[in-house]
Amino acid sequence: MKAIRVRTFGEPEVLKLVDLDIPEPGSDDVLVKVEAIGVNPVDAYIRAGNYPIIPALPFTPGKDVSGIIVKVGEDVKKWKEGDRVYSAGTLSGGYAEYAVCRHSQVFSLPANMDFTHGAAIGIPGAAAWRALFTRARGKNGDRLLVHGASGSVGMIAIQLAVSTGLEVSGTAGTEKGLAQIRQAGAKKTYKHSDPRYLEEIVADCGEKGYDIILEMLANVNLANDLALLGTRGRVVVIGSRGEITIDPRATMAKETEILGMSLFNSSDEEMKEAQVGLYQLMSSGRLVPQIAQQLPLEEARKAHRQILESGNSGKILLIP
Ligand code: NAP
């Protein structure tokens, strides 16, 4: 099979298209014939060797695939050949024509979703769910700002929040991104590439502030977020690419909370709970992942250069 292999950590050029044997599933695993692959920012951090948990070399990158189960391990009861699934994690790597996943890493793809949607849900959907519900304890009526709403996680977070009855605002860097987040249900939108956008937010939310901020770029925004939170507000750090200075006193008067979030801490049960919730919303049409671009597998390098840039407005996919 064709697969992308990394033999040394580094720039996107270390992503090489190679021929490999189709991997064999173990007794607890399934083999998925991959139809679409979701590219996540974490794939690029790992490829660069710049992440707390990195795999042994050589490896095939990629956590999110969608496709059809073509083989099941002897101890697997839940899945059978022919099932349409998507993954949130793989054992053999996702950037390939076939991927082995532990049975608990795959989830049913709703009948109304195609494989491109499936490859856009595993990691971003679980991240949005964990940030909004598990960490920030989001509920009906809460005032929410998704700071970086136009990306894969942000677009899903908006749809989850709208379907739960939160009052949703979001930011994007481009007019296209702003239009998409409005379409997804954000009532108030702000352009984070505009130097005056924070003034607009303050003018709109005033003294009340936000109950919850989901933050995609904390190294840029965390200090401002603390000023935008209301009393007992929570900011969840979903993404950060460096350091920032904050004034801890900014958390005191309003008793605000800064909450870290990492999907690596999700238990199998928590992941399942999130994916069951996402399944219900996708099945009923209340959650549709946004696809930005589809590239052939051999263009993995281009996808990795692009994923860390602003203005993608949705999920970049690789198609094997
Ligand atoms: P993505 O699709 O590339 O989206 C990135 C988002 O960040 C876009 O909405 C982008 O907006 C926005 N952004 C750019 N500049 C910004 C700024 N100055 N302020 C606020 N937002 C800004 O990536 P993703 O898959 O949604 O992931 C988002 C972040 O979450 C990444 O850092 C990723 O690594 C992280 N993440 C963490 C976990 C975890 O377990 N903690 C899990 C999944 C993802 P424009 O493009 O419109 O400018």
Any chance you could write out the topology, listing elements then pairs?
Blueprint: E1 2-6, E2 15-19, E3 29-39, H1 41-47, E4 64-72, E5 84-87, E6 98-102, E7 106-108, H2 115-118, H3 122-135, E8 143-147, H4 152-164, E9 167-172, H5 175-184, E10 188-191, H6 197-205, E11 210-215, H7 218-228, E12 229-237, E13 257-260, H8 268-283, E14 291-296, H9 300-307, E15 315-319
Parallel strand pairs: 8-9, 8-11, 9-10, 11-12, 12-13, 14-15
Antiparallel strand pairs: 1-2, 3-4, 3-6, 3-15, 4-5, 5-7
Concise description?
This protein has 320 residues and is α/β, with parallel strands linked by helices. It has 9 helices and 15 strands.
What report would you give on this structure?
The protein has 320 residues and is of the alpha/beta class. It has helices at 41-47, 115-118, 122-135, 152-164, 175-184, 197-205, 218-228, 268-283, 300-307, and strands at 2-6, 15-19, 29-39, 64-72, 84-87, 98-102, 106-108, 143-147, 167-172, 188-191, 210-215, 229-237, 257-260, 291-296, 315-319. The strands form 3 sheets. Strands 3, 4, 5, 6, 7, 14 and 15 form a 7-stranded mixed sheet that branches. Strands 10-9-8-11-12-13 form a 6-stranded parallel sheet, sandwiched between helices. A two-stranded antiparallel ribbon has the order 1-2. Strand 9 (167-172), helix 5 and strand 10 (188-191) form a beta-alpha-beta unit. The longest helix has 16 residues, at 268-283. The chain is globular and about 60 Å long. The termini are close together. The model has no long low-confidence stretch (mean pLDDT 97). It binds NADP nicotinamide-adenine-dinucleotide phosphate. The site of NADP nicotinamide-adenine-dinucleotide phosphate (NAP) has 33 residues, from helix 1, helix 3, helix 4, strand 9 and helix 7.
